[in-house]
Each structure stands twice: as structure tokens, then as C-alpha cells.
Amino acid sequence: MGSVSQDLSTTSYALLGLMAFDGPDSASMTGYELKQRADRTLRFYWVAPAMSQVYSELERLTRLALVQVNSQENGRRKSQRYQITEAGVGRLQDFADSPADFPILKHPPALKLMMGALIGPRRVSELLESYLAQLAEQRRDLLAVRSALGDAEARRYPAMVADWGLSYYDSEADIVRDLLSRLPDPESA
User: Fold this and answer.
1) CB-based contacts of 10: which residues, under 8 Å, 6+ apart?
2) Strand ranges (DSSP E) for 26-174?
């Protein structure tokens, strides 16, 4: 395994990963298509980058020869399609093969629960019920992504991440239901 250079951000690696979604020979994509893929898939487990960030990272990856750009003209419309290069696949493999940092949990519902004494059990219950509804909505969205991924071998690993996310939402919902059962009765508190 080569050493993972610090000159790439996690966003760069995420974009390279999205370009190699179907394997190292994935089809080229426009920046817009890459952003759409990020919004559909990445947002469930990483922050999907803004459009401006996608293009600035693509420029950087192109300068580093990790991505190649091909210009296409369709009438008056000109578009650029980006594709991961062999060097990009190598860097991505090094990144994927390096130890993963432990995730930093930024969990607004947990933070608000910690302050529950300030707002009382009724409001805490409302917050947790609202979070349960959000979990259900996110799970529905992710289930649609998982269904779209299918069971093709080329998408085995993105499908496994989607399965992980579905299990995460299920376990989060179980935790929240347990927390709700442990709240004092709002009428007696």
C-alpha cells in the first residue's frame, strides 16, 4: 500500500469514489451529473459537496492528473465530462486501503436531549418524535437508492453502504423509541 498523501481533501476522495462507482472503468460524468450522484447517495453518510465545491475539486483533480476532462459540443452547448484516470484509481485505492479515522459524531438530537432539563419531558418527547419521523423519511429515501443500486456486482460495495445506512436508521429508531419510553410522564413532571 502506498502512503496516502495529505494534498487531497476527503471531498476529493469522495468525488473520485463517485467517479469509480461502477468500478475503475466507470463512464465519464459532467460536474452536474457528479453532483446529482453525490446528492442521491453520498448525503446519507457524508456531506454532499456544494456545486461550486464539486467544480473546484474537479479542477484540482485535473491539475493533479487524477481526472481527465473531455470537452464535448452538442450544437451551441459545450460540456465537460470528467473521468477518473489510472493514477486517480491508484490514489483512490491507497485512500480506501488506509486506516479509516473514527467518525466524529455531530448529533443535534443527542445534544438537545442532553439539555432536556431546560425544556422538560413534553418538549423532549416532541423533539424525539420529530427525529423519529425524520429517520423514517431518510430511510425511505435511502431505500429508494438501495433499490436503484440493485444487485449488480459492479455496485456491490455502494449497495453494502446503503444496507449499512438502512441498518443505522433502524438502530437509531430503536434507540429513540427506548429513550422515549424512559422519559418521565409529562403530566407528572
Assistant:
1) 46
2) 29-30, 67-74, 77-84
pLDDT value for 189? 57
Whole-number Cα distances in Å, 81 to 22, 68, 129: 16, 8, 44
Distance CA 122, CA 118 (A): 11
Within 8 A by CB and 6+ apart from 106, the residues are none
Q: How far apart are CA 153 and CA 162, in angstroms?
A: 15
Closest CA to 132 of 181, 90, 87: 181
Q: Tens digits of per-residue pLDDT, 170-180?
A: 999 999 999 99
Nearest-CA neighbor of 25 among 175, 179, 156, 154?
154
19-44 confidence digits (pLDDT tens): 998 777 888 899 999 999 999 988 88
Residue 3, pLDDT > 50, answer no
3-state secondary structure at position 102: coil
Residue 52 clears pLDDT 70, i.e. is over it = yes
Which strand (E) or helix (H) includes residue 35? Answer: helix 31-40
Report the alpha-carbon angle 150-151-153, nearest 5. 125
Give CA–CA dist 71/63, Å, rounded: 16
